[in-house]
Design a protein that fits this description.
The complex is a heterodimer. Chain A is about 70% helix and about 5% strand. Chain A is mainly α. Chain A has a single domain, classed as ABC transporter involved in vitamin B12 uptake, BtuC (Orthogonal Bundle). In chain A, strand 3 and strand 4 form a beta hairpin. In chain A, helix 3 packs across helix 11, helix 4 packs antiparallel against helix 5 and helix 7 packs antiparallel against helix 10. The longest helix of chain A is centred in the N-terminal third of the chain and has 33 residues. By secondary structure, chain B is an all-alpha fold. Chain B has a single domain, classed as ABC transporter involved in vitamin B12 uptake, BtuC. The radius of gyration of chain B is 20 Å and the shape is globular. The chains are: A mainly alpha, B mainly alpha. Chains A and B meet through helix 6, helix 11 and helix 13 of A and helix 4, helix 5, helix 12 and helix 14 of B.
């Protein structure tokens, strides 16, 4: 399943570019619509629709890269175990909130432990610790929950409902821990880099750079290392992989660790991009991650990247036409439309469906 | 003692009945047919909007009910069309996404004149017709330890209507699940290909199940709306997950499962909250944490149920509906 990008990839990417171009043009044509009438965003006088669209494409690509980082773990887990993990959103939140917990100078608490304190580590150190702890939660989950379920041969759909229960439990645990308010990881407003009429925030630029490096790392891992090859082998055919002497269970555990750590990192970067994180910020983007993964083709690690870029651009650019509070709806609508015409996803292979 | 009476009260609220109805709908999807509908809250929300907006715009009550049912029917057709031919998890992802779309659109400021945006539609705009039908006096009535208003909002009248509806849908489920039609659905749940080889149109049967369950869910939403208000964010993903917990708790594919599940679920939640408030000191569990604490236990209960007792309280392990 995690085959090297081949001609299919370029074909699909080409198709995608055409579709994206058509979408952007359509938005340009329709652009005079509701958005202007309601001035949903403080648009400087004289800003043309074209400028607005391109600015939104830039924001969308940035969001897409970060979303891809958060979603790639979802795709890896689906690829190796067949599980649609609904608790992945909480992993994303956990990374962000743990970073806040470790780095803030405000008073923080831990559930069931009386008293409050503050740790106040520098942000970079807090983020590194948070990613490591996130990875550990992945290991723990697989050790305590998913591994035993696999051993008992619990059906995948049953496991999916378990993950829903886990998501419900973790979401409320996170709310208990951090309350219902949003927390900012840093108060520095950062600057912005402008080029011509367009801009991108410095913080966003750095987040995107870190995400791109991490994604490249994942790609190299999957394509170049022995463990990565073993991971791909398991995605293709677990029984054959086991018969060829690959230790399926340990590889899956590794995938859980990677997936949770990447989700944590994605959550931290998204919190920087989004100016904060709340107990439900991961749950909010869970469906966008699913959309990204499904769009790219369930279980295709590289598909998640393509899908996430589509979701990011669509949701941001659509704000030109529709109100910003419906932007996620448009991304989910794209998911449903793609499933109609190409159920296997953009990069998926046909035989995997139905 | 108050704690027990409170829990008893929770067992028969309109909300409990509404969730039982939604779970009966889900029982058609999952219990009978094995469909993983993760968007039951979307059906409920559509029903609420359909009814409330129709009444507000001056339609008679029966027409409003038809609008609510029609909205859910269209929604089911739209969802089932691309996904019922695909693997189960596609349906799950598409239904949950579609339910979220309904919620996003409903709470959006763009449609504030139609749906009321994130504040929703106020009760006085749509509760009138049902309350006017009430035979009970227009005052607070006390029976035993319970006191409710006779006919307004969260009333005795609403309780009577809600539980009558529950009984009707139970009857419907019981009859349909034992009919030839219901046996085909169970056959699809157990082995789709076998049923297809008997010449049945599996796709169309699944579609019928999806629509019937969805319409019932929408009516559950209408009941829920009469007990509180039409607010989009009350019908988010957690609501769908609660309905699932209720169904799995009571026992999927059983007739009484949804009702038992709903009654036990809401009573237990109320008990947990009350006990936590009474016995765990404020320094360990602050009052703001009681709500998430209770709901966290719901999640854990769902995990334990699915792993250790997937057939629920009443179910039969052989009639287990998790088929990949």
């Amino acid at each position: 399943m995690f085959t090297r990008p081949d001609t299919r990839f370029y074909k699909a990417a080409g198709l995608l570019l055409i579709a994206a171009a058509a979408f952007v043009i359509a938005t340009l044509v329709l652009g005079g619509g509701p958005a202007e009438a309601e001035t949903v965003e403080p648009v400087a006088a004289g800003t043309s629709t074209a400028t607005l669209v391109i600015q939104n494409v830039i924001n969308g690509l940035a969001f897409g890269v970060l979303l891809a980082l958060a979603a790639v773990g979802l795709s890896l887990i689906f690829g190796t175990t067949g599980l649609s993990n609904f608790a992945h959103g909480e992993q994303v939140t956990f990374g962000a909130l743990l970073t806040f917990f470790l780095s803030t100078n405000e008073q923080v608490t831990i559930p069931l432990v009386p008293g409050s304190f503050s740790i106040g580590l520098p942000l970079w150190l807090a983020a590194i610790i948070a990613v490591i702890v996130s990875g550990f939660t992945g290991w723990l989950q697989d050790k305590m929950l998913w591994g035993p379920l696999r051993k008992r041969r619990v059906a995948v759909l049953q496991q999916m409902v378990v993950s829903i229960g886990l998501s419900l439990a973790l979401l409320n645990l996170l709310q208990w821990w951090m309350g219902a308010s949003r927390h900012r990881l840093t108060n520095a407003s950062g600057g912005r880099v402008t080029f011509g009429d367009f801009y991108i925030g410095t913080q966003t630029l750095m987040s995107v750079a870190i995400a791109a490096i991490a994604l490249t790392g994942v790609a190299l891992f999957l394509l170049k290392t022995r463990l990565g090859r073993a991971t791909r082998a398991i995605s293709d055919n677990p029984a054959l992989a086991a018969a060829s002497g690959i230790r399926v269970d340990s590889i899956i555990r590794l995938v859980w660790v990677m997936s949770a750590a990447l989700a944590g990192l994605g959550g931290i970067l998204l919190a920087l991009f989004d100016n904060g994180a709340g107990f439900d910020s991961g749950a909010r983007i869970l469906l966008l991650m699913f959309a990204a993964v499904t769009l790219g083709g369930l279980g295709q690690a590289f598909g998640a990247l393509v899908g996430a870029l589509v979701v990011g651009v669509v949701s941001e650019v659509s704000t030109v036409v529709i109100a910003p509070d419906m932007r996620y709806a448009s991304a989910l609508a794209i998911l449903i439309i793609v499933l109609l015409v190409r159920p296997q996803g953009i990069l998926g292979r046909k035989e995997r469906v139905g | 003692m108050d704690i027990l009476i409170n829990a008893l009260e929770q067992m028969f609220t309109p909300a409990t009945a509404a969730f039982a109805i939604a779970a009966i709908g889900l029982n058609f999807h999952f219990g009978l047919t094995g469909l993983l509908n993760m968007g039951q809250a979307g059906f409920m929300l559509l029903g609420m909007y359909g009814y409330a907006i129709s009444v507000r715009e001056g339609l008679p009550m029966w027409a409003a009910i038809l609008v609510a049912m029609g909205a859910a029917m269209l929604f089911g057709l739209l969802l089932g069309w691309p996904t019922l031919k695909l693997r189960g998890d596609y349906l799950a992802i598409v239904t949950i996404a579609a339910a979220e779309i309904v919620r996003y659109v409903g709470r959006s400021n763009t449609l504030v004149n139609v749906t009321g945006g994130s504040l929703g539609i106020k009760g006085k705009d749509y509760k009138g017709p049902l309350e006017d039908l009430s035979p009970f006096p227009d005052e607070r009535i006390t029976v035993g330890p319970f006191t409710y208003h006779g006919s307004a909002s969260d009333s005795w009248w609403l309780r009577v209507v809600a539980w009558t509806l529950v009984a009707l849908f139970l009857l419907l489920f019981w009859r349909l699940s034992n009919s030839p039609w219901g046996r085909v659905l169970k056959g699809i749940r157990e082995d789709e290909d076998a049923v297809r080889s008997l010449g049945k149109n599996v796709y169309w049967y699944k579609m019928q199940a999806l629509i019937i369950g969805g319409v019932i869910g929408a009516l559950g939403g209408v009941i829920w709306a009469h007990g509180s208000a039409v607010v989009a964010d009350a019908m988010g993903r957690p609501t769908t997950f609660w309905v699932w917990t209720i169904l799995l708790l009571g026992g999927a594919a059983t007739v009484m499962g949804p009702v038992v599940g709903s009654v036990v679920f809401w009573a237990a939640l109320s008990l947990i909250r009350a006990l936590a408030k009474a016995f765990i000191p404020e320094s360990i569990l602050p009052s703001t944490a009681i709500e998430p604490f209770g709901l966290m236990l719901v999640g854990i209960a769902l995990i334990l149920l699915v792993v250790f007792r997937p057939q629920g309280i009443l179910g039969n392990k052989k009639e287990l509906a998790f088929h990949a």
